[in-house]
From TrEMBL, chains A, B:
Protein name in the entry: Uncharacterized protein
Domain Aldehyde dehydrogenase: 209-471
Species this protein is from: Balaenoptera physalus
Domain of life: Eukaryota
Pathway(s) the chain acts in: Amino-acid biosynthesis; L-proline biosynthesis; L-glutamate 5-semialdehyde from L-glutamate: step 1/2; Amino-acid biosynthesis; L-proline biosynthesis; L-glutamate 5-semialdehyde from L-glutamate: step 2/2
Membrane-crossing residue ranges in chain numbering: none
Length: 641, 641
């Protein structure tokens, strides 16, 4: 492996020999009074060795910590004759580099109190940390830093790093003094996380994810200025390409399937595989999205006459740049792309590694379709080597994240995406409350459809709440019989269990999404108790009451605080298509922005346009000449052929 | 001070003598191979002493680390005769407590690998970490833990803690092994942060903030089920109370002013002070909010016939629980409370310490008004000792945070509020682009109003972009003359500076909100360059074009991607009242949920109500008996007298 440096951060985990160079700012304390033992020890412990044995063990593994003594305030350490190979140096940067290369080291980590390289002088408007630095870029950047280390110090570091790189050693320059990070900075770097600046000789062919974000932003802005018909045309063209280029798509998909065979379980393989019929129905879906896109961007929601010749308009506009993260299923790609195109949003797509061949061709076709109106760059496919966690941190670049996949994926992304809103739901714990005045005929039908039709769906029933009066009635027996026939495993809630002589297994938690032919049954004394139970254990997704009493039903509809509340209808209606929203973006349990099944409008926001002559607010002051009118004006109906 | 334990975490910073007890899980490594030196050293360094001198210095200050040796896998440390007072113990918990009390210690910090005390068995549905534990509660909780330490270990800890507490020593039990926290856990505890479980003998009179959150949630739910007229009544009643109880309010406000005198600057004192006229105009504002509240909650936005007898309705509902954080100005309180009441939301209010007397009485009056419809608890005033940062972490309890105050406050809260959306804007960098076809008469008027009328406002002008062709024209001279008369300090953008022989000071950053009589001027070559500049340096708040060319204007309106985009109108129109939205909640630059000036609807979300007979989705399958109709139904007009 040696002789060639690593091209990507994701390869750093393969480094066999690592040199860690700790700058004086790392090994000394902020108050300049001696060694920062805590920091030092926690850095050393990342390799899980105790302080005493560390040096010996590190040497044995060719990991050499270099203690900087040229500018430290502590007296130079006495040479420890017992530790051959531990070097106390003065010209630290270049020596570290030389040493790393001579030892045929894979990776040199230079820790000091600087974050890495910046592309502009520190403090300037555009100063951004450079994630990957290529030798060829040397002329074009200013070696700014955001710390007290001057430009000179940074230049020496860069020089040394380039020298090491030429010798085949990869380099990362990062901050080793940050209190919240220094305990795991080395581990993070080796795991490929975007910490500091990574020096790479191999410039990847494609753009960086930051460049892709900018392309999606500007491409999206162009897309938004097209006529609705033009956006629809792009989607129709993509639909055509999906069927026209079927053979190529299926060939790429075959490659993915071959590579995945034996490594993926059968259900995952099934989700990964495409077929002619899948492509056909995908094309039909796209044409539906095209149809519903006609009235999305630029719709006037409100018009107000503020004063004479001063008119205000609120119009729909795209949210901006979406990041959609999806697993396995490559058919997600054209679907999501069509939704973004229909709503005029820029899009970053992050698919799974297992579908990379399929995704690549589907993305090429999407860009081909976008080209017909010159907006090819609005949809970007992010390289599979980019970590989802890193993407979730690009809050300046991405306005909304939409995870498409398992609830585990959604949960992980909600955790990682600090600062960027995530649309979706991680849980669907749907309840059905069977009231004392429920109709015998309806209950069984509704429970069966809600639980058994497709138990893995997020809108499937998980907890059945039964009014106490129904216990030991024919209605109750009928439900239990049906569940037995359908082979639904019953878990008893604590109260239900206490009513039974022989109870089924008691639930571990009343807050469980089984996603399978399993159902929790609990007993409640009243509609109020049912509502309280739902508020306490539910996930605000979809909750249903079954009753013939309209008053009780309306009480339930009004008081249950969930995205969807139904009366005498299956939980499974909670779905964008069934709601008649046209294209479905997803189901949101958030209380901000879109809620419940989300159609295209969930990908839109609004802006306010004000058209005046030379209107100033001072004319409207107490002694001014004008008064606010605030008249509602009619909204023009758009021609939707 | 000794003899009485601390009542609140916020007092812990006054602790003079601290005993830190490190459990074996803290001092030994996860792999059970020796001492966790890194962790240990970083814990010790929180007191900023080097490892060698630490024990001596700690002893001198009566801070005694106790190394647990009864169950550790390392051999017991040899007694170090040089260090009198360092104790190696076997029965560690009770000994630590005894020692702490005997030494008249203020605070005993017990660090092990448990998070603290839980109120239910670990893993159960409701298990929550107990923030403050009172001796009287001992019977009612289960001493569950989430770690490998069994119940027995925890019971011993609690027993020891209660023993110490009786002796006048406060106790905190916390986790000292968490890699991201152990470096500053002691500092955090002493600073009053909510880490682990704090033992207190003094039960505060009021509820905990968690209990307040629950009260706001259930109170808000009740509020939402009232009739719109009832909510309006409450607000009217509050408006009456503000004038009726004027004397009491002003008396409380006088107390605040007296206590603040000499400690607050004049402008802050002014913001803090109330007056009869302020209360009167506040009451008028409240009545306006009451009026606009009539059509907020329960408004039907969409009705769809899904199938025969299956009708879907999308209705507006409150968001849930709002946390409003405001500084100085006590008049914020009734205003914000009225907005929450009008929109049926529960509310947690967090005011500044400096206004505590005023806030207390205003909150009492709010609750009095709420009582007329039995929803007193919907609005809660959080104790001033609660830290804003701690509140921003209560993501299970709060649905939306609204900061009301300086942009610094907004930025801090946006940073702290991981996981909870924040409504507002931290920056208002508004631009005005003067096109080559701008009218001479209009420009000066518009610039003056935008920049000079109220320069501290977020919608004031910060950057003037001038088309190159206008340089050295009468129009340009007229603008500069006006700015001189108005004493506006000009900062030149780099391009503008390059055109001038004698340039004013060049801008430090093109992304500056001056909030004062200062203005950046930059030159652009075209409307496109103006748009690019705005996208690069703006804050998406409000941006204006001045031109007589309608085509250019519409191009600008369509392409500028900001919340408010104006043509020939002052930036200062960007305001909820001026837009005719009724009550203003704030101005949002977010792209999710409300954007631009936000009225009451920004405090609302929607839910979906589906009313059926016994509808199941399987009837709509390919071979089913039913077909989806998806007919739009007319929306009933509500009676708004």
């Amino acid at each position: 492996m040696h002789g060639k440096s690593f091209a990507h951060r994701s390869e750093l985990k393969h480094a066999k020999r690592i040199v860690v160079k700790l700058g004086s700012a790392v090994v000394t304390r902020g108050d300049e009074c001696g060694l920062a033992l805590g920091r030092l020890a926690s850095i050393v412990e990342q390799k899980r060795r105790n302080l005493n044995g560390t040096l010996h063990e590190l040497l044995r593994m060719n990991i050499v910590p270099i203690v900087n003594t040229n500018d430290a305030v502590v007296p130079p350490a006495e040479p420890n004759s017992d530790l051959q190979g531990v070097i106390s140096v003065k010209d630290n940067d270049s020596l570290a580099a030389r040493l790393a290369v001579e030892m045929k080291t894979d990776l040199l980590i230079v820790l000091s109190d600087v974050e890495g390289l910046f592309d502009s002088p520190p403090g300037s408007d555009d100063a951004k940390l450079i994630d990957i630095f290529y030798p060829g870029d040397q002329q074009s950047v200013t070696f700014g830093t955001k710390s007290r280390v001057g430009m000179g110090g940074m230049e020496a570091k860069v020089k040394a790093a380039l020298w090491a790189l030429q010798g085949g050693t990869s380099v990362v320059i990062a901050n080793g003094t940050h209190p919240k990070v220094s305990g795991h900075v080395i581990t993070d770097i080796v795991e490929g996380k975007k910490v500091g600046t990574f020096f790479s000789e191999v410039k990847p062919a494609g753009p960086t994810v930051e460049q892709q974000g900018e392309m999606a932003r500007s491409g999206g802005r162009l897309l938004a200025t097209l006529e609705p018909e033009q956006r629809a045309e792009i989607i129709h063209h993509l639909a055509d390409l999906l069927t026209d280029q079927r053979d190529e798509i299926l060939l790429a998909n075959k490659k993915d399937l071959e590579e995945a065979e034996g490594r993926l379980a059968a259900p995952l393989l099934k989700r990964l595989s495409l077929s002619t019929s899948k492509l056909n129905s995908l094309a039909i879906g796209l044409r539906q999205i095209a149809a519903s896109s006609q009235d999305s961007v630029g719709r006037v929601l409100r018009r107000t006459r503020i004063a004479k010749d001063l008119e205000l308009e609120q119009v729909t506009v795209p949210i901006g740049v979406l990041l959609v993260i999806f697993e396995s299923r490559p058919d997600c790609l054209p679907q999501v792309a069509a939704l973004a195109i229909a709503s005029g949003n820029g899009l970053l797509l992050k698919g799974g590694k297992e579908a990379s061949h399929s995704n690549r061709i589907l993305h090429l076709l999407t860009q081909e379709a976008l080209s017909i109106h010159g907006v090819k760059e609005a949809v970007q496919l992010v390289n599979t080597r980019e970590e989802v966690e890193d993407l979730c941190r690009l809050d300046k670049m991405i306005d909304l994240i939409i995870p498409r996949g398992s609830s585990q994926l959604v949960r992980n992304i909600q955790k990682a995406a600090k600062g960027i809103p995530v649309m979706g739901h991680s849980e669907g714990i749907c309840h059905m409350y069977v009231d004392s005045e429920a109709s015998v005929d309806k209950v069984t039908r509704l429970v069966r459809d809600s639980k058994c039709e497709y138990p893995a769906a997020c809108n499937a029933l998980e907890t059945l709440l039964i009014h106490r009066d129904l216990l030991r009635t024919p209605l109750f027996d009928q439900i239990i019989d049906m569940l037995r026939v359908e082979q639904v495993k019953i878990h008893a809630g604590p109260k239900f269990a206490s009513y039974l002589t022989f109870s089924p297994s008691e639930v571990k938690s009343l807050r469980t999404e089984y996603g399978d032919l399993e159902l929790c049954i609990e007993v409640v004394d009243s509609v109020q108790e049912a509502i309280d139970h739902i508020h306490k254990y539910g996930s605000s997704h979809t909750d249903v009451i079954v009753t013939e009493n309209e008053k009780t039903a309306e009480f339930f509809l009004q008081h249950v605080d969930s995205a969807c509340v139904f009366w005498n209808a299956s939980t499974r209606f909670s779905d964008g298509y069934r709601f008649g929203l046209g294209a479905e973006v997803g189901i949101s349990t958030s209380r901000i922005h879109a809620r419940g099944p989300v159609g295209l409008e969930g990908l839109l926001t609004t802006k306010w346009l004000l058209r005046g002559q030379d209107h100033v607010v001072s004319d409207f002051s107490e002694h001014g000449s004008l008064k606010y009118l605030h008249e509602s004006l009619p909204i023009p109906q758009r021609n939707t052929n």
